[in-house]
Amino acid sequence: MPTPPARLPRRAFTIFRSKGALSLVHSGLRYANSALEIPATKLRHVRYDLRWNDSSPEPYRLLWIDPDEIEYLIVPSIKDDLINRGTHVIDGDWDGTIVDTSFATYKELVDRMDGDLPVLAPFSRYGFYRAIRSYLLEGEDWTETEYYQSQRTSGVSASKLERYRRSVDDLYDSIVTNGYKTQAELPESARVMKEGPPEYDEIRVNIARDGTFVLDDCRNRLSIAKLLELDEVPVRVLVRHKRWQEIRETVATVDHADELSDEMTRLLDHPDLQDVISESATATGK
What we know:
- By secondary structure, the protein is α/β, with parallel strands linked by helices.
- It has two domains: 1-56, no CATH class; 57-253, no CATH class.
- Helix content is 44%, strand content 13%.
- It is built from ten helices and seven strands.
- The radius of gyration is 21 Å and the shape is globular.
- It starts with 7 loop residues before the first helix and ends with a helix.
């Protein structure tokens, strides 16, 4: 949550004294953005509660899923066009185009598609993931990976890419040593987001109309989870396709699985239906 107004002067003075005027300006902008986002997010979820009733999606409910269930990522990320707090239900064709191609960076794929966006692309063919795999598992020099070379060609400095490599190393070593921790299990100083609900910065996914999980953000953790072949990781849903939400609504209204279509019955084990399905429907459907 944002700093309470009564504490703002002291907080501002601390930032100015320790980090300077520019950091204070940036902190002020982040605070203003957060102060506007929170009421907008609460209003959105009030609308969802009224519209979707028992199937209304919770803002920060975590799903535990096999990392290999996330086969695609969306390019460009939906998060860039949305308030990232809470969750969203969005109609349209954002999940409708799958491109089976290799690409080094998001920018390369965006340029290649020439405006025909967004698209779902295989995560396994993303240059970043392939670079991390080659570097961590196969011993390839980080500077020789396609991803590194592409980033350098795009003007990213060697020092920035080296800092990035070290952060990946640190995350990999931490998960190997301590296991995969949720943001809530980490000390506050180690969390990605210092204020607000810790669930905000778990791996963010979108759910397509057919229930397919699509990565939206947090590629580092997903990449390492896949490389380590973890059984499950926590994710939060940023966007559900409206048609998928309608499936949640239908499942929430039935008492027995035989009231559902064959297609919906086959979906009853989906992680995002477990909060809306009745015990009798679960038992009948298995």
